[in-house]
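Components:
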Amino acid sequence: MSTEQPPAIGAADAFGAPPALVRLDGVARSFPGATTVLALRDVDMVIHQGDYVSIMGPSGSGKSTLLNVLGLLDRPTVGRYELDGVDTAPLKDRDRTRLRGRRLGFVFQAFHLLARRSVLENVALGMTYSGVPRGQRRGRAWRALERVSMTHRASFYPTTLSGGERQRVAVARAVAGEPALLLADEPTGNLDAATSAEVLELLEDLNRSGLAIAVVTHDPEVSAAARRRFAMRDGRLREEP
Amino acid sequence: MIRPRGDRFGARDLFGESVRGLAGRPGRLALTALAVVLGIGSLTATVGFAQTGARQLEATFNAVDAVHGVVRPAEQDYGAAGAQAVLPWDGDQTAARLNGVEAAGLVTEIELTAPVIAAAPVHDPMAPPTRAPGVMAATPGLLDAVSGTLGQGVWLTGFHEQAALPVAVLGRDAATLLGVTRVDNQPSVFIDERSYTVVGILDRVERVSGLLNAVIVPQSTARAVFGLAAPGGLQVKVALGAGPMVGEVITTALSPNDPSGFEVSMPLPPSKVRQQVTADVNSLFVILGLVALAIGAVTIAVVTSLSVIERRGEIGLRRALGATRLNVALQFVAESAVVGLLGGLTGAAAGVFATVGLAAARQWTPVLDLRLVGAAALTGCLVGVLAGLTPAIRAANLEPATALQEGA
Ligand SMILES: Nc1ncnc2c1ncn2[C@@H]1O[C@H](COP(=O)(O)OP(=O)(O)O)[C@@H](O)[C@H]1O
Ligand SMILES: [Mg+2]
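Structure:
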């Protein structure tokens, strides 16, 4: 078995420390149209390995746009985005996709589970495109389900699960491929308080085991769990003390 | 961090994903594939009918059918005015002079009451009659007219005929019956105590199989000895395709005054025979098949487009999970290809059943090239691929972020 290191070319800082996992430098994103929308303005942000950051802000302030940029699902109009110390701007769509599949995990408010696949298959799908050997996918999916305490539902179909259970399955899918950064856009937005707390606990668990997390939320409790908190307003990002 | 080098998203993954994508909606799958089934089905059936028909042609149509004809006096009601038409004694020569006739010969069955036919003079008239061969009269042209071949000796010649000689050719079975095995020692056969020298043994004929079980004597001899009233029938061999032409003139040539008194059976030209069979293999089927196939392609394209819109969320998710545009495009192409292939396979099977059914109804041997059946199924697959291209490209070009949001 050969090994593959994350690219380590980027600029280590003056003290020789490893580069930040994520570094945004003066990032802006505008949507041209009848009236051009400036969804992100001059955003600077650093996320370290094992970090846990939250982003709060009113609806339409640009939180999802920021997460899409971080997730390589969208490109900044202006500014620089480094992942693992590598500038992502010159990367071709193929390489961005590959990086996304291997280094980033996603959790959505709407879960996005495939209704006609079992829970286990849904989790295994998370590794289909990320370079995990075919023979290992089911075993690793099972272990990911163990991490979210959902093995008892492995053969169920998502439609038979509660919202909280679905989100736990989605989290399992996101972490099964062992990403470096989990991006969660309002993961508790569709859940009641009790199940929100469950998911929150799960995120904290994962973070304790070394996974960096960036979570967009409306929920002050979710935000409070993070180690660093950011506020978003009109496309501007500010770290709260 | 150490990671195993992984498998890329490969053909197996692609196939698995497409089949699972389809298997979730079997009803829709069936409806989508229906038009392809009909299209491939009717095309396969058309080819099957054509091949079965062609084979049937080979079986029924051969050179023998195409060149042999016969003219006989028509069966007539004797109560009506007019006498029975008769073939002239020299009808064979008249016919042989006609354009398109290659050989002509008269043949007549001679009906004798209790004939005694033997290879040696019979001394005991009370001996129980053994199975007797028939007696027939023939003119020299008959051998070629019925495409006959001799086993030994010669056929009746013009000299035999002119001189009304007491000679005979034995049909193969008659020779066996009479115990005549060779003709070089000039054996004799006796018909009612009259002796005939055997000059040849007839081995095979394509027409008038009764000849093989007969003692065949010259027509003139038969007239003199048995008082033959008229020739029984005129066998002709025509050039390939000349049948209808000969049929039109032969009766007038034989009997200018009463040409309608004969029954004429002349071979159809080969192209006519072929047309009769291929009339069943209607080109309408081909057109229907192509139309159905086109409808199938449009159906698959429309359903796949709907599926792309419906599954925007899934497309966005797959892109987020690391699927490239190509992965996404290929998945939709593969799905429509599988739909087309299933339609093609089902249609090919239906076409085979239709062919077998038609063949069974006509008691023909069903013939269908299996490679063509395979090609039919693959055509269905190809239709699916082509129909899926546009929606697949549309799916690949979806922006993942938008797809995730709109598909939620
Ligand atoms: N694809 C897009 N095209 C045009 N405008 C967009 C698009 N995506 C987001 N926007 C706009 O950008 C702004 C920020 O949106 P978004 O990041 O979704 O906000 P949030 O997630 O904080 O609610 C909004 O005004 C929204 O209308
Ligand atoms: Mg949002």
